[in-house]
Automatic annotation (TrEMBL):
UniProt signal peptide: none
Protein name: 3-keto-5-aminohexanoate cleavage protein
GO molecular function: 3-keto-5-aminohexanoate cleavage activity; metal ion binding
The keyword Ubl conjugation is assigned to this record: no
Cofactors demanded by this protein: Zn(2+)
PANTHER family referenced in this protein's UniProt entry, alphabetically: 3-KETO-5-AMINOHEXANOATE CLEAVAGE ENZYME (PTHR37418:SF2), 3-KETO-5-AMINOHEXANOATE CLEAVAGE ENZYME-RELATED (PTHR37418)
């Protein structure tokens, strides 16, 4: 038996993102109502974290805190207990607008701790903005999920943990398969895992594969004892010829991988405990 076996696997569903549109896959939820319905299905299928962006009616991304507030309210009502994670990613706004929803105090928010290239531009995360976002997360009790698009981002997260800018054990997500950034590469993945185990002993970590690499990265992560992210934000297909019918279908695929690897799927209660998040009262 490996130490990965029997350890609950936390499944995060990234429901919308800032790029895919209904032209890519009609199942991409755009309105708040669609987002709530899609998240509810994914929650029932086994996801315990929802990673969310919000969109304008014309499908373009926005950082509008009012939309995030409506989404949070709906999620708390329809998916009680589920961990709510908002994106502070850079496609939906610039500078401090990216953190405008943090006063809503979601359970978690994504935090990029360094810059890298995206397919058509620089993903710009200057040190002062990173520190401001991390400070807002401390102020409002939001746990960051560090998005590691590069090996240096893992080291930066650890530095921020050691000097208190990230107050608790960092939860680091490896992101692989973004064009012009880190590809889906097994030796690099293994080195990421080894580095987190060395620098954050006992820390939880997860991984996301973008596009066709999603399933591959899910397999690697579950087998290595990490947690898994899926969802239409990262990938709109089941395979080369088939569009994913829903976020729940992508979650179901990770559930199957967990079964094959003898890992139970984490309930939201287990996920909250493993990530050190506040307990919430169970719905009656
Ligand atoms: Zn995102």
């Amino acid at each position: 038996m490996t130490d990965a076996q029997n350890k609950p696997c936390i499944i995060c569903v990234a429901i919308t993102g800032s790029l895919p549109t209904k032209a890519n896959n009609p199942a991409v939820p755009i309105s708040i109502e669609e987002q709530l319905e899609s998240t509810h299905e994914a929650f029932e299928a086994g996801a315990s974290i929802v990673h969310a962006h919000v969109r304008n009616p014309d499908q373009t991304p926005t950082s509008d805190p009012d939309k995030f507030a409506r989404l949070k309210e709906g999620l708390e009502k329809h998916c009680p207990g589920m961990i709510i994670q908002f994106s502070t990613g850079g496609r939906s706004g610039a500078g401090k607008a990216r953190g405008g929803m943090l006063p809503l105090a979601p359970d978690m928010a994504s935090l990029s701790v360094g810059s890298n290239n995206f397919p058509t531009r620089v993903y710009e995360n200057p040190p002062d903005l990173i520190d401001w976002l991390a400070g807002e997360m401390r102020t409002y009790g939001v746990k960051p999920e560090v998005e590691a698009f590069d090996l240096s981002h893992i080291f930066q997260a650890v530095a921020m943990w050691r000097d208190g800018r990230i107050p608790d054990t960092p939860y680091i997500q490896f992101v692989m398969g973004v064009k012009n950034a880190m590809p889906v590469d097994k030796p690099a993945f293994d080195f990421y895992v080894e580095t987190v185990r060395r620098l954050v002993p006992g820390g939880e970590w997860c991984a996301a594969g973008i596009g066709a690499g999603q399933l591959t990265v899910n397999e690697w992560s579950v087998a290595a004892g990490g947690h898994a992210r899926t969802g239409l934000e990262d990938n709109v297909r089941l395979d080369r010829d088939t569009l994913a019918p829903s976020n729940a279908a992508l979650v179901g695929r990770v559930v199957e991988i967990c079964e094959r690897n003898e890992r139970p799927v984490a309930t939201w209660q287990q996920a909250r405990r493993m990530l050190g998040l506040r307990e919430v009262a169970q719905a009656a």
